[in-house]
Prior knowledge:
The chain is α/β, with parallel strands linked by helices. About 40% of the residues lie in helices and about 25% in strands. The protein contains 15 helices and 17 strands. The model is unreliable at about 1-20 (pLDDT under 50).
Amino acid sequence: xxxxxxxxxxxxxxxxxxxxxxxxxxxxxxxxxxxxxxxxxxxxxxxxxxxxxxxxxxxxxxxxxxxxxxxxxxxxxxxxxxxxxxxxxxxxxxxxxxxxxxxxxxxxxxxxxxxxxxxxxxxxxxxxxxxxxxxxxxxxxxxxxxxxxxxxxxxxxxxxxxxxxxxxxxxxxxxxxxxxxxxxxxxxxxxxxxxxxxxxxxxxxxxxxxxxxxxxxxxxxxxxxxxxxxxxxxxxxxxxxxxxxxxxxxxxxxxxxxxxxxxxxxxxxxxxxxxxxxxxxxxxxxxxxxxxxxxxxxxxxxxxxxxxxxxxxxxxxxxxxxxxxxxxxxxxxxxxxxxxxxxxxxxxxxxxxxxxxxxxxxxxxxxxxxxxxxxxxxxxxxxxxxxxxxxxxxxxxxxxxxxxxxxxxxxxxxxxxxxxxxxxxxxxxxxxxxx
Length: 435
């Protein structure tokens, strides 16, 4: 048995009581969602709230305002999960078809709910407005179902059974949906106990395949703690999902796994959670050591400075930067010798190092970070292709370092990877100095 397997088994034995095995499926309805005109935030919110009560979300599906598509989505969801929650399609217009689709999927008739009609009429009376005839359609629900009160709008929700699955149809307006879920749905969820919690361990410098090999022993898809990986702009995140009989237990299991990941992945770990970014982690190390930073940028056009000033309180350690895009700016603002540029070219290790030293001296900073490269899509050559980038550090006691990189991708990808790589090199140097 390898070390990773032993760690997994240790984490897997922490749960003594079996958490809920019930699963939910979310159906988001709306033409505006399938065409990309609006972003579905409701499903993410619902998944998070369901996890709080120990319900895993088996899947999300987004469908347009088409009767057959909505009926099919309900059928699929009810076969795959114990609880189905839909959002959207409960309005008063002709494209609001959720009631009809749910009734067809159930094999039921739509019937008028008199209490809902009275509530809708009272809503308009309170506003001092006449109710349109079309709003009356919102009071119809499938026979055998229960209407859910909507205190923030005219569309009542619907609760009922579709096969073995309990179904809840909620409005698409986030404010209305959230209130209805918390007030009318949460208490009706069957068999809920325990909790599911999530952690995200963010790393940089390891490819996804390399990282996967390091944590292979932890990557089972069963057990109390499950891992998954995602990649975005060079940052590989390990998602930790922990399910336990209580939130406290689920939290403990998640924290144990996070510590195991830190041990296996070492200095590649930037931090835990979306809030702990490359720049905040590096900034915290600068603050810890009482040191300051200045930046010199060419191909990144100020992106390093932008990232380093994203966290609040960055003025504690970030003094400023120079965007020296033109050769003349490198000479005049950073003191890069003209003969160095002429001999080696603006994209070279010699120029990168000279830029780092120059900006450190200009701002009287403890550290100078510099980057120069060819972000494309033009400007490359056989000798110096698009994606060639040099990053350099100049630090206390004349500690200097320069690295050569070749990045692939679009101009924006190359610029972002260059900036993150430069900051990461400073982060690693600072970590060593703190040890």
